[in-house]
Write a structure and sequence with these properties.
mainly beta; two-stranded antiparallel sheet
């Protein structure tokens, strides 16, 4: 017998500042205008505007942006990455 567990999927946009060259491509493609260049000329996000849609990740030529999905279950467990989609 299987039990039903309520789950919630959340996501976060991670920016690797070491890989970002500040080209601005991610900023140009962001539909929510959630990305901007910080004082060092690196990509940064506005958490209130970002929906983690992944468009910036798709167009970043330096692979500096990554959307990480996480599945949170009511029993307190969580899974990240590939398993979050299952």
């Amino acid at each position: 017998m299987s039990r039903v567990v309520n789950t919630e999927i959340t996501a976060d946009l991670l920016i690797n500042q070491d890989w970002c060259k500040g080209c601005g491509i991610c900023i140009a493609f962001c539909p929510r205008e959630a990305l901007f260049l910080d004082e060092k000329g690196k990509a940064e996000k506005n958490n209130e505007k970002c929906t983690c849609c992944g468009i910036c990740e798709t167009f970043c030529p330096d692979f500096a942006l990554t959307v990480v999905k996480r599945r949170l279950s009511a029993d307190g467990g969580d899974k990240a990455g590939f398993n979050a989609r299952q």
